[in-house]
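pipeline: protein-struct stage 2 | run 1193 | D-hydantoinase
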Amino acid sequence: MAVLIKNGTVVTAEGEGKADVYLKGESIAAVGEDLSPESGDEVIDATGKYILPGGVDQHVHFSFTYNGSKVRGFETSNAAAVGGTTTLIEFVNQEKGRGLVETIEDYRKTDADGISMVDYAFHMVMTDPRDEVIDEIPAMAEAGYPTMKLFMAYKGMFFHADDDAILKALYKGKEAGVTIMVHAENADMIDVATKKLIAEGKTGPYYHAVSRPPVVEAEATRRAIYLAEMADAPLYVVHVTCREALEEIKAAYSRGQRIFGETCSHYLVLDTEDLARPDYEGAKYVCSPALRTKEHRDALWEAVDRKWLNAISSDHCGFDFAVQKHMGRGEGKSFADIPNGAPSLQNRLNILWTYGVCEGKISRSRLVDLFATMPAKINGLHKKGQLSAGFDADVVIFDPDYEGVITAANNLEGVDYTPFEGFKQKGRPETVFLRGEKIVDNARYIGRRGQGKFIAGKPFGASYEW
Ligand code: DUC
Ligand code: ZN
Ligand code: ZN
């Protein structure tokens, strides 16, 4: 069945204008003026609405485990749909002693296929950098997984990676067109500061930020850039949060290195002071890197506007407050025991629109680039993230006139809180199509479990284009 969306304003990464959008089967058949329906087509009048490509969230955690506590999984992916995101990219931690492809494919079969309500792809997280694992990187890319992250943070945890692993991954990744990503924080600096704070009795959630200040992120970002320089390979820095790390990325880019990065919605609107909220509510805001001050938020908004950063992700992590976020409370416990991460799958577009577009920090076109187009290109998802003929018919009809308040009470993330509780919201995704099928109608999820499908990424994504 075909759908013709008429009279809306189509927003792309290049600009915007009045146009109709024709969806036929799973693809966009045409974008243009005065398109006519065929008999039997559904026609939607989008007068006064914006038409955006379905979002691509390149940074979600549906399998992350911290101190034995696990996040909510793909069964909550309808939260992405109502938030206007139609493709998710999940980080899968390699299991020790196992190969890369087998780890992702086992996880995919048991935890994503037949469950996900939006389309999905995967990044590998390498945790066991044996020679045969490094040698498997090209096969991983050929299997549809052309991106791999390494955690420079988290000393003592099985997923921590040292410089040796990162450099080997950069060398081998470059041969195969794999984009190497890093979570850039200096693990030793955090470890020493954490132990010192705990010894001083400074154990509450606020000290999470004190244990990992911007210098921790700047040091690791610079080191990763040097490693990428040595390998002459591109590098992607996930969740950039501070001015100092941004400066490292900009400097490397202007020296001619292919260094790229993203930030995440919570770093643009939340504050270090949120970690000091009473009644242990500060624990809701424990994520890594830590939340920053206004000075850094301003720097991030400028960076996303000026293309110094090229994507805004959620870094969604569905730990609940009542039990999981309380793991740092009690005798002998500290902020270091609180699972890292916050739920934000549903509100990425709402935050970017209300606090970015409506406050004049980014244009609608810039939003589309950061929310959908660039994340698709970086990850080699060649039919996602654009409103053009031949692309997947993943489309959001956005109502700019809606006004509301964000609350966990009407959230589908399956978590008992949202870090954006009480935030004003302007505009909302009213209708969402996933490959031509309507999955959100009048801002309510109407799709089916298992409707999403796996999308294989192609190697040599945008970080290789110069
Ligand atoms: N940081 C988070 O806040 N959550 C998941 C993993 C990470 O690095
Ligand atoms: Zn991270
Ligand atoms: Zn993350």
